[in-house]
Amino acid sequence: MYPREIEEALHEHPAVAEVAVVGIPHDSLGEEVGAAVALKPGATATPTSCRRSPRHGSPPTSTRRHVWLVDQLPKGPTGKILRR
Fold it and tell me: Does residue 76 belong to any structural domain of this protein?
């Protein structure tokens, strides 16, 4: 599954404002998927609730195993999300 597809699945949660999917180092796999999620103002959610996608036929939650909530995602001067 591509990072953009994972971002789209996470965006289906009604509380999610922005998502950045990044690679996380893994000892045996080399890298696995992680996602930083910023919520809409006043919205509440948990990493577990964000992992559940209403999309029919979405991949198993193992593709979104590492989800963490942030206040906001870092952006560059053009407003693009920085994935460092």
Answer: no
What is the maximum span of the chain, computed from C-alpha positions, in angstroms? 39
Domain that holds residue 19: 3-70
Is 81 inside any structural domain? Answer: no
Residue with tokens 């979104």: 64
Token duo for residue 61 = 């939650």
Domains in the chain: how many in total? 1
8 Å CB contact between 37 and 9: no
- Predicted confidence (pLDDT) per residue in 36-65, tens digit: 999 999 999 999 888 876 654 555 555 567
pTM of structure: 0.80
